[in-house]
Amino acid sequence: MNLALNHIGQIALPVADADRSERFYADVLKLRKLFRFGGLCFFDCAGVRLLLDQAADPADIKSGAVIYFRVADLMLATKELEGRGVVFVERPHLVARMEDHDFWLAAFRDPDGHLLALMQEAPKGYAPPS
User: Fold this and answer.
1) 117 near 107, Cβ under 8 Å?
2) pTM, whole model, 2 decimals?
3) What is the largest CA-CA distance in the chain?
4) Handedness of CA 10, 110, 107, 26 (dihedral sign)
5) Domains defined for the chain, CATH in brackets
6) Mean pLDDT, consecutive 10-residue segments, the chain of 130 residues?
């Protein structure tokens, strides 16, 4: 058997308060909620499930991985989320000039301090509107 993993089915994030996190991901980020079971809340991210898992002890919550949400227009998405109360820790900026596109990024934190980011693979030479 020649096993090659490539499709992520689910990503789990530990959270301190499932109700608070559910509101943030549903009401602020507008992710589509799939279902809730006790302290577990599941959202759909274009076919990848995001599981928010209420930790038994909030001290066990560690922030390590970053979840990147692909957007078509970084500046528009940033303004929309700011209007919903999101505070960005990294303003939209150019990260890398790739061979066939430019990679742009903006980052913010969820209520538990997990780093989340918006990413745009923009056409070469893209300049955001001022």
Assistant:
1) yes
2) 0.83
3) 53
4) positive
5) 10-59 (3.10.180.10), 63-125 (3.10.180.10)
6) 73 93 97 94 95 85 83 92 96 92 94 92 84
pLDDT at residue 62, as a whole number: 76
Pairing label, strands 10-15, 48-54:
parallel
Give the residue among 72, 86, 73 at the shortest CA–CA distance from 25: 86
Task: Give, in degrees to the nearest 5, the angle at Cα 73 between 32 and 68.
Answer: 55
Backbone φ/ψ region at 67: left (φ over 0), alpha (ψ -120 to 50), beta: beta
- Would you state the pLDDT for residue 20? 96
The answer to whether the CB of 79 falls within 8 A of the CB of 41 is no
Q: Angle CA(78)–CA(94)–CA(118) in degrees, nearest 5?
A: 35
First to last CA, the chain: 53
Query: What span, in angstroms and rounded, lies between the C-alpha atoms of 30 and 35?
Result: 14
pLDDT of residue 5: 61
